[in-house]
From TrEMBL:
GO molecular function: endonuclease activity
Name this polypeptide is given: Endonuclease
Record bears the keyword Nuclease: yes
Domain Endonuclease/exonuclease/phosphatase intervals: 25-237
Pfam families the record matches: Exo_endo_phos (PF03372)
Signal peptide range: none
Keywords: Endonuclease, Hydrolase, Nuclease
Transmembrane residue ranges: none
InterPro entries xrefs: Endo/exonu/phosph_ase_sf (IPR036691), Endo/exonuclease/phosphatase (IPR005135), GPI-anchor_lipid_remodeler (IPR051916)
Gene3D superfamilies: Endonuclease/exonuclease/phosphatase (3.60.10.10)
Domain of life: Bacteria
Length: 246
């Protein structure tokens, strides 16, 4: 066990007849480099434990490689959760991208390629969870920086959804600066509107870049930002948290 895992005891899991109520979160961890410029995955781990979410979507996660640390492994050991990765960069020297941490077992995963032209590779990690016998689909994503790129990515992402088979949660950093831009309007049309507190930049949030949507919408009860003093320095984004019930 590494030093971080030794300091942070995994949360106690209790038996339940079902997953509801469910706490989910999305967090762009900025490669575990804080607003002070320091690489400190143990701070990200502490923020996650403070939140206490059951399912967490992560973006900008170093996943290992000959020249890169495996931050997901540190976070998995600290939380005691199941972990699945969705690399958007996968070469021997560096693996990097999206990830999901889950209190519940992961039944299946799929990769959705959202790359656009010569822009930085993007994607979504699509995972089916078994929440005490009840299926839940979680999609963790990180969209591009240009409007045309995001429009193309949202079109492809929405084509992959089958919202009738099980509840679906879409979480991630959508990088959408324009409140009335077409990507957000398409997502609202598909999932219905959801609260969008400001999450970026962490020290003084001005933009709602990180979002959580769920279908069916009636399950979404409350959305808030985890703005603890530690969260304000652990990454350049603040975590976004949603309370979901049956």
């Amino acid at each position: 066990m590494n030093q971080v895992a030794a300091v942070l005891a995994p949360p106690v899991q209790t038996a339940s007849a079902g997953p509801w109520p469910l706490l989910v979160a999305t967090y762009n961890i900025h490669s575990a480099i804080g607003t002070d410029g320091r690489f400190a995955p143990e701070r990200i781990a502490r923020v996650l434990l403070d939140i206490g979410a059951d399912v967490i979507a992560l973006q900008e996660v170093p996943l290992g490689g000959s020249n890169s640390p495996d931050v997901l492994k540190v976070l998995q050991e600290a939380t005691g959760f199941h972990a699945v990765e969705g690399p958007t960069e996968d070469v021997p020297q560096r693996r990097y991208g999206n990830a999901v941490l889950s209190r519940y077992p992961v039944l299946a995963t799929r990769a959705i390629d959202l790359s656009f032209g010569s822009r930085e590779a993007r994607g979504a990690l699509d995972a089916d969870l078994d929440c005490h016998g009840q299926p839940l689909r979680v999609v963790a994503t990180h969209l591009g920086l240009r409007p045309a790129e995001r429009r193309d990515q949202i079109r492809r992402l929405l084509q992959a959804f089958d919202t009738d088979r099980m509840p679906v949660i879409l979480m991630g950093d959508v990088n959408e600066w324009f409140v009335w831009g077409r990507p957000l309007r398409w997502l609202v049309s598909h999932f219905e509107a959801a609260p969008a507190p400001r999450t970026f930049p962490a020290r003084w949030p001005l933009f709602s870049l990180d979002r959580i949507w769920i279908s069916p919408r009636r399950r979404l009860r409350r959305v808030h930002v985890h703005a603890s003093p530690l969260a304000r320095i652990a990454s350049d984004h603040l975590p976004l948290v949603a309370h979901i019930d049956a």
